[in-house]
């Protein structure tokens, strides 16, 4: 049998969360407990995994904190942070919290306008960046954000020509801190003891699918209770490994690295570079993993493509093993006993294929894999269960410190998101909106009374999602309330559901389904450049660029086949009748996606109005004339004709 | 842009005096003089067939000029073989990539270091004492100074022929750096790269030239005038084996002979801007 069944029976480390406990207090306690005897984090650097013990963690945070305090950081000040996942990032955050300051994380790939907005809106006093790139971002907005006082950097590469007096390196700040510590040896502990659980610790800018980002205020109590409640469901152990490679600006990563990580004391591993993350994850083989669906979708696509490429015998073994895997997974979903013949076949599938594949995906030791932050298609979900991966849905918001609902082991349903974690109540309003209440519900939006009033009513967090609770008490999330479409026969329908199904095809990277109160449903498709490109190479179809490839008639027919596959078990009015291949992929830099890769429907509807209009007219082409933005801010104008293809049903 | 350094005679790292190179009756170099100061980026430009690569080959010893002298740090090196010059600290990259396609990135870079290793076959096979120390030092140098600088962590174990062209060019630079050179000859490092790769490569060249750790003098043969004018301290213009002029980028851009011979009527050097 696949391993991993027994570990759950061990008891987890339970930490009593009192109202007075703060993250820094817990940090101090854990540092004292583990000291030099345990590795707190590892970073792969120069090709080698470099360990940091809890003692190293403690000293780095302490000196950084005292240094920042001596540079003028006060209780309640905001410290903005940006950069890849690395120990220094976590140290900076912890140091800010120890000083009583509030951490504000920015996504690494934030465009300059977003950086300016967040720095200005949050009243950030300090800015901690990783490399020259982040320092450049801060410098270019410095004049417009007068409240920003110091810019701290980490990597000296390329910094040789920077001599402004408000720039300072992390090393230098720590040196200052060391001096302060010599003069006042008890200052660090004193600062930590001043904190209270109800103090704000983090200010999170939510992705905002519609408007400007809103800053959610979370207290120590919020973060810690959420971590405890999740750990009560799925305990982790201090011998576990976790890989931190998703943006710290995402609540899910904070929840794993801070809320849960600090309480449990597991080792946090940082990959060498974002590009090496996949290989580094494989080397570590984490016990627990939390990622948004797009990561799992990427893995699925990788496996599907490799499968197409591989030798005959490997393909056959894979096909056998997945067939068995799906059968067994379905029996488990239906909570039926698995006959011994299937148990045997599943064992065979495990030793011939699943074991190897899981190793390649870095899932060999995985006990719990969570997905959350966006909707995941049932096909992807079943794919992982067929592999024997214990993938579970998580549902929550930044406003509830990350999570309120999760699947329980042995009670996983692929169309639901699970049941509430302890101390959490979830209800459905008369309008069908999901509302929740728990100690982790946030303190309000920063400088936005009106939004706070709308979202927080009598302690209940209004999510803006529509859903229902099924006969087993599982929550089913339908879609964002404002996104729910009405079909031609008057039934409500979730475009997101259809999109996730379309995305199960490896050829489709993004999809956007339209058809609210229209006579039929239509779709705008973004092909996956590498997969479709490879497919075209094999068929000797020439192309030079994404726009050209996307408009090839053969590619249209290929995409049509994928849509027909997704159309199969849909009711008649929900079937996609017309589609168009877009000349580019939706991108967060063009504001079409949020930084967590959710489609900003209202925005794309405005931007691609011509396409939508054409999809509901008799036209068979649509002319486009727009500009696209590159990552460095440059813009390019694009003029092209897009073909519209009809699908006969 | 690199700062030009004020310097006297002592600071001249490489000097070519009246160098002639003939292939049959064709004069590839007809009496060229060149002085490269320590710490600068000295570019060589000129139309195709002007003799730029021949000049590189003369400097690093692949060709032996029939007449004229080449001095490196005051010492005449005409009679030295390429590997002897390499040992003195002259390293180069090639216009067409000359890597070992079947080997990994790391192995290719290590190869560039080979000339400085003192280990023999015997001690190498048992890996103790000095050998071990040397290997560890080499590893540290390659990982911390080269792989980190060139940002090729994600490809270090990939075989070279599987990599896209732009990355192969980077590996080629990495191998040249493994020699820990004082003088680096870069033969069209930007040819065939896309805009983003050009920017990266130009940044690497500046890093190698300016960073305290490296401070490598560079001779750059390049057609991309935008980059050449941006990063060079001096520019030598060649045409049919003759030196047209040698001066700062500004002087070169405004010299009528240069414009006629190479840059053309329009501001070609501004192509990438």
Short précis:
The complex is a heterodimer of chains A (649) and B (273). By secondary structure, chain A is an alpha/beta fold. Chain A has 21 helices and 28 strands.
Helix content of chain A: 25-40%
Number of domains of chain B: 2
Largest sheet of chain B: 6 strands, mixed
Q: Assign a percent range to the helix content of chain B.
A: 25-40%
**CATH homologous superfamily classification of the largest domain in chain B:** P-loop containing nucleotide triphosphate hydrolases
Number of helices of chain A: 21
Look at the structure and give the mean pLDDT of chain B.
Answer: 88
Helical/strand content category of chain B: alpha/beta
- Major sheet: arrangement of strands of chain A: 4-3-5-6-7
Tally of alpha and pi helices of chain B:
10
Average the pLDDT over all residues of chain A and give the rounded result. Answer: 90
Structural features, described:
- The complex is a heterodimer of chains A (649) and B (273).
- The two termini of chain A are 45 Å apart.
- In chain A, a hairpin with a 2-residue loop joins strand 1 and strand 2.
- The N terminus of chain A is likely disordered.
- A 5-stranded parallel beta sheet of chain A has the order 4-3-5-6-7, sandwiched between helices. In chain A, strands 12-13-14-15-16 form a 5-stranded mixed beta sheet, with helices on both faces. In chain A, strands 17, 18, 19, 20 and 21 form a 5-stranded antiparallel beta sheet that branches.
- Chain A has 21 helices and 28 strands.
- Chain A is α/β, with parallel strands linked by helices.
- Chain B is α/β, with parallel strands linked by helices and 273 residues long.
- Chain B folds into 2 domains: 182 residues, Rossmann fold, CATH 3.40.50; 79 residues, no CATH class.
- Helix content of chain B is 38%, strand content 23%.
- Chain B has 10 helices and 10 strands.
- Chain B has a 6-stranded mixed beta sheet with strand order 6-7-8-3-9-10, sandwiched between helices. A 4-stranded antiparallel beta sheet of chain B has the order 2-1-4-5, covered by helices on one side.
- The radius of gyration of chain B is 19 Å and the shape is globular.
- The two termini of chain B are 15 Å apart.
- The N terminus and C terminus of chain B are likely disordered.
């Amino acid at each position: 049998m696949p391993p991993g069944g027994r570990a759950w029976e061990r008891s987890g480390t339970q930490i009593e969360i009192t109202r007075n406990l703060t993250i820094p207090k817990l940090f101090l306690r854990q540092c004292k407990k583990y000291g030099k005897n345990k590795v707190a984090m590892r970073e792969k650097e120069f090709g080698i995994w470099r360990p940091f013990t809890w003692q190293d963690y403690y000293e780095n945070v302490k000196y950084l904190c005292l240094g920042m305090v001596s540079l003028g950081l006060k209780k309640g000040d905001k410290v903005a942070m940006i950069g890849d996942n690395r120990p220094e990032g976590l140290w900076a955050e912890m140091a800010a919290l120890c000083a009583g300051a509030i951490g504000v994380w920015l996504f690494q790939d934030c465009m300059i306008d977003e950086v300016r907005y967040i720095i200005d809106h949050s009243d950030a006093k300090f800015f901690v960046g990783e490399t020259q790139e982040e320092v450049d971002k801060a410098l270019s907005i410095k004049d417009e954000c007068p409240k920003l006082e110091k810019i701290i950097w980490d990597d000296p590469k390329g910094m040789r020509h920077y001599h402004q007096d408000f720039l300072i390196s992390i090393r230098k700040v720590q040196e200052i801190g060391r001096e302060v510590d010599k003069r006042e040896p008890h200052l660090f502990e004193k600062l930590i003891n001043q904190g209270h659980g109800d103090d704000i610790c983090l200010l999170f800018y939510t992705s905002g699918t519609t408007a400007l980002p809103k800053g959610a205020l979370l207290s120590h109590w919020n973060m810690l209770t959420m971590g405890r409640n999740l750990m009560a469901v799925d305990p982790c152990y201090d011998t576990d490994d976790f890989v931190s490679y998703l943006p710290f600006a995402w609540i899910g990563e904070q929840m794993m690295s801070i809320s849960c990580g600090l309480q449990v004391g597991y080792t946090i591993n940082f990959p060498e570079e974002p590009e090496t993350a996949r290989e580094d994850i494989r080397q570590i083989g984490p016990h627990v993993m939390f990622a948004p669906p797009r990561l799992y979708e990427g893995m699925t696509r990788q496996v599907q493509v490799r499968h197409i490429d591989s030798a005959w015998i490997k393909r056959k073994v894979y096909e056998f093993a997945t067939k068995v895997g799906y059968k067994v997974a379905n029996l488990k979903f239906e909570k039926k006993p698995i006959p011994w013949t299937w148990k045997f076949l599943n064992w065979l599938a495990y030793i011939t294929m699943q074991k190897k594949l899981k190793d390649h995906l870095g899932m060999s030791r995985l006990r719990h894999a969570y997905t959350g932050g966006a909707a995941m298609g049932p096909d992807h979900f079943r794919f992982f269960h067929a592999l024997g991966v214990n993938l579970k849905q998580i549902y929550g918001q930044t406003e509830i410190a990350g999570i309120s609902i999760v699947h329980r082991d042995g009670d996983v349903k692929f169309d639901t998101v699970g049941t509430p974690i302890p101390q959490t109540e979830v209800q459905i309003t008369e309008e069908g909106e999901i509302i929740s209440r728990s100690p982790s519900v946030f303190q309000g939006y920063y400088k936005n009374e009106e939004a706070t009033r709308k979202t927080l009513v009598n302690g209940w967090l209004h999510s803006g999602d529509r859903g229902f609770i099924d006969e087993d008490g599982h929550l089913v999330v339908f879609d964002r309330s404002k996104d729910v479409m009405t079909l031609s026969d008057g039934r409500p329908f979730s475009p997101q559901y259809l999109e996730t199904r379309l995305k199960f095809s490896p050829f489709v990277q993004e999809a956007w389904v339209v058809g609210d109160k229209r006579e039929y449903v239509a779709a705008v498709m973004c092909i996956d450049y590498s997969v479709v490109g490879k497919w075209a190479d094999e068929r000797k179809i020439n192309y030079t660029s994404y726009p050209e490839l996307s408009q090839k008639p053969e590619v249209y027919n290929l995409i049509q086949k994928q849509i027909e596959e997704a159309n199969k078990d849909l009711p008649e009015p929900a079937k996609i009748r017309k589609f168009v291949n877009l000349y580019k992929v939706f991108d967060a830099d063009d504001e079409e996606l949020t930084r967590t890769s959710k489609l900003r429907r209202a925005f794309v509807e405005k931007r691609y109005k011509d396409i939508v209009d054409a999809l509901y007219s008799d036209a068979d082409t649509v002319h486009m004339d727009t500009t696209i933005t590159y990552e460095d801010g440059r813009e390019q104008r694009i003029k092209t004709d897009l073909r519209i293809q009809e699908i006969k049903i | 842009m690199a700062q030009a350094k004020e310097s006297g005679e002592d600071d001249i790292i490489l000097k070519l005096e009246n160098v002639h190179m003939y292939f049959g009756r064709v004069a590839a170099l007809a009496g060229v003089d060149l002085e490269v100061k320590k710490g600068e980026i000295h570019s060589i430009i000129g139309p195709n067939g002007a003799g730029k690569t021949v000049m590189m080959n003369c400097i690093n010893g692949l060709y032996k000029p029939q007449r004229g002298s080449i001095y490196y740090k005051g010492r005449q090196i005409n009679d030295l073989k390429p590997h002897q010059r390499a040992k003195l600290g002259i390293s180069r990259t090639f216009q067409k990539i000359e890597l070992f396609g079947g080997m990994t990135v790391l192995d290719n870079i290590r190869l560039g270091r080979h000339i400085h290793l003192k280990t023999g076959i015997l001690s190498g096979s048992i890996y103790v004492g000095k050998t071990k120390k040397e290997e560890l030092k080499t590893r540290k140098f390659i990982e911390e100074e080269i792989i980190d600088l060139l940002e090729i962590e994600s490809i270090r174990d990939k075989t070279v022929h599987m990599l896209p062209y732009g990355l192969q060019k980077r590996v080629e630079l990495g191998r040249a750096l493994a020699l820990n050179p004082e003088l680096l000859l870069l033969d069209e490092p930007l040819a065939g790269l896309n805009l983003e790769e050009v920017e990266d490569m130009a940044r690497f060249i500046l890093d190698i030239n300016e960073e305290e750790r490296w401070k490598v003098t560079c001779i750059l043969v390049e057609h991309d005038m935008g980059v050449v004018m941006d990063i060079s301290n001096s520019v030598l213009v060649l045409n049919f084996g003759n030196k047209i002029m040698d001066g700062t980028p500004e002087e070169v851009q405004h010299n009528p002979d240069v414009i006629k011979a190479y840059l053309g009527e329009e501001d070609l050097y501004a192509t990438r801007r």
